[in-house]
Backbone:
């Protein structure tokens, strides 16, 4: 590979433009001997003379013209790079590697679609995994930003809150507790629960909720690996579940699931955009977080009424806020 430098290529371009070493040197802010040295080094690297010295000035040889063509191509690519970098600094172009816990898949596609409508030149690569996988991807910088509930404590991170994340207990419509109000923690604890794997954000919140119920944490419930499996199992009558309200929007609207009226529920958590605090931030990251902060909440799923419809008039219950 030829070891031509940018300085040598610029010298060739200026020599070709002016035809004289002295004028080229003046344009480049160099001395005549310095430009002559750049030309000599380029010719030695290529192994052929690049200019003929004539009475009318410096004229490129065939090899010199080939070198000049390459120099112009490099110059043009650097110009385009400068424009791209200006755009990067303004957040107008770039690539964002976005991650999300499994619950986030219920709203992330419409969030991305809304973002790209106003930022069409920012490409987004999406990774969805459970909490542990998402944290590992963030730890090893395979993603730039993670959408999740509780930020991890064992990584230096910055967390930007962008919306409420209500957690509720659900059951099938024909469950004996479906129409009961003010179900106590002790009463609901006696039910058979279907739960996520240990370490998931939802599981941790449920463990905190039942921490003061004797013996409940020893037999919390039957583990299932995904929200979809849990929802199907609840609809089949295999138990009840503690789950993100953002995962059940469609099932509530279709009447296939109901939210049980448990004292202390819903538990309100928050959604965060989490990024490492010990790495450089790209303009694309900054503009995405600005978008989340100003508009992100409106793209979270809308949860229908928390209680059965016939109770709304009597008790004035309002739908969960976004």
Residues:
């Amino acid at each position: 590979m030829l070891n031509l430098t940018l300085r040598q290529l610029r010298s060739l371009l200026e020599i070709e433009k002016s035809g004289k070493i002295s004028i080229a040197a003046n344009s480049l802010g160099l001395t005549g001997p310095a430009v002559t040295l750049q030309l000599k080094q380029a010719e030695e690297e290529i192994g052929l003379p690049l200019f003929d010295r004539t009475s009318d000035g410096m004229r490129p040889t065939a090899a010199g013209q080939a070198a000049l063509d390459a120099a112009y191509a490099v110059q043009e690519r650097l110009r385009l790079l400068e424009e791209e970098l200006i755009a990067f600094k303004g957040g107008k172009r770039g690539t964002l590697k976005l991650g999300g816990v499994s619950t986030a898949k219920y709203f992330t596609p419409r969030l991305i679609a809304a973002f790209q409508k106003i930022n069409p030149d920012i490409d987004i690569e999406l990774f969805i995994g459970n909490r542990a996988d998402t944290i590992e991807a963030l730890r090893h910088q395979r993603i730039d930003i993670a959408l999740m509930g509780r930020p991890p404590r064992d990584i230096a991170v910055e967390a930007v809150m962008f919306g409420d994340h209500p957690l509720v207990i659900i059951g099938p419509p024909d469950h004996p507790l479906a129409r009961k109000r003010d179900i106590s923690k002790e009463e609901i604890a006696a039910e058979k629960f279907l739960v996520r794997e240990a370490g998931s954000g939802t599981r941790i919140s449920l463990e905190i909720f039942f921490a003061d119920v004797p013996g409940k944490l020893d037999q919390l419930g039957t583990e299932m690996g995904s929200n979809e499996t849990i929802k199907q199992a609840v609809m089949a009558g295999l138990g009840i579940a503690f789950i993100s309200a953002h995962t059940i929007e469609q099932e509530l609207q279709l009447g296939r699931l109901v939210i049980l009226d448990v004292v202390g529920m819903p538990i309100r958590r928050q959604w965060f955009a989490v990024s490492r605090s010990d790495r450089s931030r790209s303009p694309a990251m900054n503009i995405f977080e600005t978008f989340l902060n100003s508009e992100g909440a409106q793209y979270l799923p809308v949860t229908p009424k928390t209680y059965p419809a016939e109770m709304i008039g009597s008790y004035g219950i309002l739908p969960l806020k976004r």
Q: What stands out?
A: Residues 306-322 have pLDDT under 50 and may be disordered. The first strand starts at residue 51 and ends at 54. The radius of gyration is 32 Å.
